[in-house]
Queue: 4 jobs
Job 1
Amino acid sequence: MKTETDIATCPLCNCRETVLFFQDKKRRYRQCQQCRLVFVPSRYWLPADQEKAVYDLHENDPGDQGYRHFLSRLSSQLLAKLKAEPGQRGLDFGCGPGPTLSKMMEEHGHQMDLYDPFFADDPAVFTRRYDFITATEVVEHLRDPYRQWTRLFVLLKKGGWLGIMTKLVTDKQAFASWHYIRDLTHICFYSQPTFSYLAACFDAELSFAADDVILFQKRQE
């Protein structure tokens, strides 16, 4: 079993200045003092087969109007940015077992590729470049967030858009009763300062379109 010193390093920025943020009966949660990411040390992660079993329970149906309405909070923002240039190419990163956002974007004339390590493991997507990328309810699951965030920005063309949906950390009191931490596949928790850190790292403009909708635009120069 790993010791506390083994789990101190932030998986996003590699800073060793992390502190205990919260703990419950099942896990500890540490916070990085540089990028402000709250993360679950690897000793508490589910094995891959158990993680996939949780995702298999998700009932993401493209025909579910309620689910479409939920996703439209991101798609509407992206479509407004892309409307001047129809037919752009996008990637739905972490599309899950029932890709839906990709279909919604295709219905507006955009071409979509899919990637998911469990349900659409297509390495060819990493040889391409994209006008926009979506990651809905994905970044909280990342085991190697620095590598994956770097990969996303590499895949994104200059001037391209990266649309994220994830719930944000506000304070310790709210965190303690937060439903988001009850899902044991959730291991990274972001706040507005964390996203500001990422925008600075990857030379992107940042906007918060809603409480859980975050948009990055990769700068042209």
Note: Residues 1-6 have pLDDT under 50 and may be disordered.
Job 2
Amino acid sequence: MLLAFLDSAGIPLPAGADALLIAIAVTHPSRAWLAASLATTGSLLGFLVLYWLARKGGERYLDKHTTSGRGQRLRTWFQRYGLATVFVPTLSPVPLPTKVFVLCAGALRVPVVHFTVTVLAARLLRFFGLAYLGVRLGEDSHHWIKANALWVTAAALGLVLAAALLLRRFTREKNASS
């Protein structure tokens, strides 16, 4: 829980919580689901800390850190794709920029309930999926993740794309009927 909290709150620990969760699932399968629950809780709380810091600092803080280069591109992505930019990297085992999108969500005042549901959905899928792999595949879990990380990320992107297309269609139909 602590590793997941620290990583999500902004202290980079690449794959620390993931590796520990898999190790617990492999060595103590009966504790895998508890470990996944604790990792999810810690991660959600860490992201909420980062979200609230950005929300308190407001757009001025975001402007300071995303006015040029890569930061500006990531901010533009967030403004275009919204919480999908939080969901995909939060779900994916491949390291993707997450913190900037969390900062955008807070600074741009995305409703905390929407942010929480997005992070919770992604982290539940990720951590319970890792626990499942640890229990089912044992020591081979790390190899499976490395071999299939891009496919998992592609599947997450596909889900987000499908949801975005459905949302766009729903919005167009709603605007057409108004």
Note: DSSP finds eight helices and no strands in the chain.
Job 3
Amino acid sequence: MDAEQFIVITLIGIAAAVFSYFNLLSSSGAVAASLTGILVWAGFGINGVIVMGTFFVTSSLLSKYKHKRKEYLGELHEKGSARDWAQVAANGGTAALAGLANLLSPDPVWLLVFSISLASANADTWASELGVLSKKWPVSVKNMKRVPRGTSGAVSGFGTAASAAGSLLIALSAYFLFGLEQRWAVAIFIFGFVGTMLDTLLGAYLQAGYKCVKCGLFTEKTLHCSMPTIQVSGYKKLNNDAVNFISCFTAAFLGMVLYIVF
């Protein structure tokens, strides 16, 4: 390992530790984020780390934005704002795999896969963190009825706009840092947005949903009011992390197909 490699790996580790210190990552999340960062750097260099960092930093800060108004989400969501290893893998796993693939077999298609996966993850996170601040309750895509803020499988105008902005930020970051053609920057933006729409559909129809047997709250938690909840919808193994990974991976795969065809 030369001096440059040592410095980069050390900085990635320090960044993960800082995120953990400020409760943005759990201990397992810090380790997973470090490994993800190393694979991304190995495949795409420092510019790849910057794009990934753009996602991690903005999404983590947004999770803390107006956190008092979001406290009720702790009753609905399975996990808190400090990301564990599964959440890191769900949002950054495809990007890490793209970095490894580009290291082993360099090809421009892996940069597209990498960028789209992060655009999708960023779009979904921005939609979740900002959409819950909308003045109006979102609409469930399953029955077109108003549902409480934070409900999986629901959309709002404000959340949709935030989603588009999140995808656009990653597309622009990749465009300027890697000197991409405009058409591929547009593809990253579109497929990133498509990824979060897919996430919404999966959240509405396939993600596991539970109901508290004591207070009757619909939640993602398997334990509520100190009692096991009962599953009322979706598939047990498809929690929010699984849905996020599938959405990012699928959006990136569709972008790869487009690249190969054209």
Note: The first strand starts at residue 139 and ends at 140.
Job 4
Amino acid sequence: MEARSQKSILITGAGGSLGLAAALEFSARGWRVFAADIDTGRLPEGVVPVEMDVTNTKSVEKALGAIEEIAPGLDAVLHLAGVYTMDSFVEIPEETLQKMLDVNLMGVYRVNKAFLPLVRKAGGRIVIVASELAPLDPLPFNGIYSMTKRALDSYAHSLTLELDLIGTRVITVYPGAFGDGMTKGAVRSMDRMRETTRLYPDITERFRKIVVSQTGSAKDPSRLGKRLVRIAEKKRPRRRYFINTSLKLKLFSALPFGMQAAALRLLLKGKEQ
């Protein structure tokens, strides 16, 4: 076991576009990066690959044991593991909804519960990446993902207050669109929904066009990676950061509920005959 000269970080979801970008940025800054994912084949050189399924407690504990053999502590745990889909609440398969909750919410819980002792040994911090959608009113067909992120936001809020009492900082980041992974995923989800829905065939076609029109607002994932490095290295970081959030979504969420519903009917159904 070596001396504490190099900072260490665990990144979940390191095989995704945001996770890869973050892993590269932290590694470039000299951090030892434990890059965790189910499939470690996509991970870049210069990181320590860690096979971990955040939905499986035994897998998380096995990853903990492997990291403990290398690092005496963790200066940061960065949560980027997540899954995304668009569907309606009355048609989504139960197993799909369960998986989203299991990864997006319970996965964060499992990893924090297991790795907190290593974080405390190093006087480190926990960085939870939620979504710009978490504090906003959800849109139709995106409400399933928003629900998981809003639940994550509530978890992060309580965890921040609890761990603050014992001197461990928790930081929640609310990013907007970065990279084309989520925007393309949204389009693919709408395509799948169009093929299976019995209730919303015409509406999903209109909604898909809106999703496609918004894909250009996504920023380079490396920009988020660089920002996450600065947050992890900041001596006195804030507890919340909003990055590249959408003004349109903020304005929509500020509307009274009745006006939201009327605007969506006009957009997605057109003028009633």
Note: The mean pLDDT is 89.
